From TrEMBL:
<keyword id="KW-0560">Oxidoreductase</keyword>
<feature type="domain" description="FAD dependent oxidoreductase">
    <location>
        <begin position="10"/>
        <end position="402"/>
    </location>
</feature>
<protein>
    <submittedName>
        <fullName>D-amino acid dehydrogenase small subunit</fullName>
        <ecNumber>1.4.99.1</ecNumber>
    </submittedName>
</protein>
<dbReference type="Pfam" id="PF01266">
    <property type="entry name" value="DAO"/>
</dbReference>
<dbReference type="GO" id="GO:0005737">
    <property type="term" value="C:cytoplasm"/>
</dbReference>
<dbReference type="GO" id="GO:0008718">
    <property type="term" value="F:D-amino-acid dehydrogenase activity"/>
</dbReference>
<dbReference type="InterPro" id="IPR006076">
    <property type="entry name" value="FAD-dep_OxRdtase"/>
</dbReference>
<dbReference type="InterPro" id="IPR036188">
    <property type="entry name" value="FAD/NAD-bd_sf"/>
</dbReference>
<dbReference type="GO" id="GO:0005886">
    <property type="term" value="C:plasma membrane"/>
</dbReference>
<comment type="similarity">
    <text>Belongs to the DadA oxidoreductase family.</text>
</comment>
<dbReference type="GO" id="GO:0055130">
    <property type="term" value="P:D-alanine catabolic process"/>
</dbReference>
């Protein structure tokens, strides 16, 4: 491996998830010499484990320009390589006046942005569902512009486009830390040696805080465990992605469904959650209906993971190549039962697989897509807080613009790292 590493590139990217790879694609297309370093395999962590939703509805308005741009990029990607992208629409369902008021509140907050979202009521709701339901759905926040892609295809597909544009990608190659000179970024120290680069992008998902901390940069980020299951293929007319509160489901390209629910998330208490309590407490209170807080094994695993380490010997990044936390089967099977009760057609669905993934979250649930003021040449794209897959291609494009010092085509003020103070 060490002999095949380049001595120097224009931009080194840490992390081969959808964010690192989309950034690499955008930079390579712009003629930059780019290398991506992935400690495990491409999309081994969150980017292959998500539900596959490409969603504008329900997002923080600050992210809506990115979501809008991402739709165009997904279309462009699908024209070149099959990532399973389909603009099939997405709906949040309501069954009483309180639900409808909540859906309307989001619509009002998003009014200044192009979303394609509408509030449907009565017969229009039954028409988009196209399957008999036992539940009295009276309203739906629906966007026909939203869609899905297949997570097991998406990052690999974009990596194919990046390689075709000249990008080099190294798997099983951890970056131990940054090389700096005269107070600015000079490259990366990988487990196989140094690669010079005067610009480095960290797209390390749930590992970003660890690398930042060892570099003396404060990044408030925690991990939240999410889960999903997938079913066999069976005849079903529900051909859009749906959130029915106690369940979510979306049709897969293989004819089955990916099923879960928002409240399947578990936040383990860890030493970091105690260190960052002041930053995350308001978010935990706001999300308490969807979040289960648990104390267990992860506390001790993280307690014994060093937060400061030298770069001349194996680091935690090499010791754990792929975070593979297993599913919260209790929650996802409960979600499937609720779905079967709501839509009896799902009684014929058999479960093929259940899985878990570790989402990286920030205190305000917005990502960091930003230059690092204290270290010129260092950029961060992380903290996508459970919804970075859908906006991934647009987030990568935005990062690439920041790296090249060209005017961003979408607003990025809400995503700067400097919004957080120690
Ligand atoms: C169960 C679940 C459901 C989800 N559903 C959705 C959804 O429907 N829609 C949506 O938009 N989002 C969803 N998400 C969130 C989405 O998957 C993530 O926001 C997105 O994939 C983040 O991409 P990333 O590239 O930042 O991180 P990751 O995919 O985690 O990639 C980071 C990569 O960096 C590598 N890395 C870290 N440190 C180093 C290092 N030092 N050296 C080399 N490599 C390193 C890691 O090995 C990893 O492969 C879901 C997530 C989960 C877990």
């Amino acid at each position: 491996m060490s002999s095949s590493l380049p001595q120097q590139v224009d931009v080194a990217i840490i992390g081969g998830g959808i964010i690192g790879i989309s950034t690499a694609w955008a930079l390579s297309r712009a003629g930059q010499r780019v290398a991506v370093f992935e400690k495990g395999v491409l999309a081994g962590e969150q980017s292959s484990r998500n539900w596959g939703w490409i969603r504008s509805i329900g997002r923080d308005p600050a992210e809506l320009p990115l979501a809008h741009r991402a739709n165009s990029l997904w279309r462009e990607i699908q024209q070149q390589v099959n990532v399973g992208y389909r603009q099939i629409g997405l709906a949040y369902l309501g069954e009483n006046a309180t639900d409808q008021a909540g859906l309307q509140t989001w619509l009002d907050s998003a009014r200044e942005h192009p979303t394609g979202a509408h509030l449907l009521t009565g017969e229009a709701v039954r028409q988009i569902l196209a399957e008999p339901s036992t539940r009295p759905w009276t309203s739906a926040l629906h966007s026909a512009e939203d869609g899905v892609a297949e997570p097991h295809l998406a990052t690999a597909g974009i990596a194919h486009l990046a390689r075709a544009a000249g990008c080099q990608i190294f798997e099983q190659c951890a970056v131990r830390g940054l090389d700096t000179a005269s107070g600015r970024t000079a490259g990366v120290i990988t487990e196989f040696g140094r690669v010079a680069a005067d610009r480095v992008v960290l797209a390390g998902g749930a590992w970003s805080r660890l690398l930042c901390g060892n570099t003396g940069i404060f990044l408030p980020q925690l991990k939240v465990h999410g889960s999903a299951l997938r079913t066999t293929s069976f005849p079903c007319g529900l051909d859009l992605a749906v959130n029915g509160k106690e369940f979510t489901c979306r049709p897969r390209a293989d004819g089955g469904y990916t099923v879960s629910k928002l409240a399947a998330s578990v936040a383990d208490v860890t030493p970091d959650s105690i260190r960052l309590l002041r930053h995350f407490f308001p978010a935990w209170m706001a999300q308490r209906q969807n979040l289960n807080i648990r104390f267990g094994r992860r506390f001790f695993e993280e307690l014994f993971t060093p937060t400061r380490f030298p770069l001349d010997r194996p680091t935690p990044f090499e010791k754990n190549r792929t975070l593979d936390p297993g599913p919260n089967t209790h929650s996802v099977f409960a979600a499937l039962r609720q779905l079967q009760r709501a839509f009896p057609v799902f009684a014929g669905a058999q479960v093929v697989q259940a899985w878990g993934g570790m989402m990286d979250v920030t205190p305000d649930a917005l990502p960091v897509i930003s230059a690092v003021d204290s270290l010129p040449g260092f950029f961060i794209g992380t903290g996508f807080s459970g919804h970075g897959f859908g906006i991934g291609p647009a987030a990568g494009e935005l990062l690439a613009q920041l790296v090249q010092g060209i005017a961003p085509t979408v607003g990025h003020h809400a995503f700067r790292l400097s919004r957080f103070r120690v």
